[in-house]
Amino acid sequence: MLRLPSRVVLDDEPLDRPWIRGSRRGGDPGPVLQVRRVDDATFVLRQSPRATWEAPFLYLLLGTRRALLLDTGNVADVDRMPLQPTVAALVDDWVQAQGLSDYELVVAHSHGHGDHIAADVQFAGRDHVTVVGVDELSVRDFFGIDPWPAGVVPFALGGRELLVAGIPGHDARSIVIADPSRGLLLTGDTAYPGRLYVQDLPALQESLDRMVALADTAGTGTILGGHIEFGAHGAEHPVGTRFHPDERPLPLTVSDLRRLRQLAYDATGRRGVVRGEPMHLWIGACRIPLLRLGVAAVVRRLRGTG
Ligand SMILES: [Zn+2]
Question: Which residue from 189, 1, 8 is spatially nearest to 83, judged by alpha carbons?
Fold first, then answer.
């Protein structure tokens, strides 16, 4: 029987339904981690905005030979965020139900930024667990992406074959994972409903070309990224806010991805915030817009609304 740690909740809601949204200051903190079961071998995990304002999404995909955990989120401390015990419980439940043995867990990352790798320490040094390094060379070597970044390579979980490619632009180490068996494309912080920070615009443009092509050829029409930063009515959640009272749905479509690609090409030669729907590009340092969002977050906190 599946037993998850306390302060972790499980549901079977569709992916476009609302997620845990954190709470106002002084309000009920609620669960720290939400597990959404897409099917018995596919889970989306969301860290609560109350536990970490980044509130990242993590993905656990299970095959008959091994599992892939994509990202470990923004909280290292297992007492504050029991990620490893949660993943272990989900994997054990699957392994027992399927009667599997010699099972492995691979922990990899959509990219190398701190809000996606913090709990690697919870998995390091454990038996039957491989934690892939976050530097570009470790990523390309582990998956065998050759040529980097454009090579699309298979990654077999056992009865479930994923496809992996490099997608620099937000981060030089970013990868995309296609799961044709479930029609999913996992895009990390390169595509999600929110502020997409751009480190290298020409690289991003090329990556988006390849992501659109991959979504088409792999038949992966449900695009799932690393965060939600926009409300249902277009409002932005300020940087640092712990309460997302209404959020846009997580999944994007291939049409959204095409719009994002167009936005990236239209932004050629520009710096600063370039607005699109349902995402904005933040190109370069963007100090003034960031400062504005930071002030908005402080005001919300002082008012007790975020
Ligand atoms: Zn992120």
Answer: 8
